[in-house]
Description:
It is built from 3 helices and 5 strands, in the order βαββββαα.
Amino acid sequence: MKPLEVRLPHGLDQAEVRRRLDRGIERARTEYADKVSAIDAAWESDERLRVDLTVMGMSIAGDIDVLAAELVVRLELPTLAGLFAGRIRSGLEEQLGGLLQAPA
């Protein structure tokens, strides 16, 4: 397993970040259904979202921490997926960054 951490700044309150993450996960389940066979997400606390997904047969587990000024995404990538860590990082920055910066 290869760890990957992405930090994304935001200026939102915690409730708004949670709402946007929940909405983003629902949208991802629809938009990426052809590539991602399962996206399981559950809030472990007000600040931590546990995420497990299966992409092209590879299981990826991680956490998303909602901090006061940033979102911290930590994923454990299978060895093969680790080869694409740069692309995964860029995708997270683009998708989650856009989700956090979008108007309410």
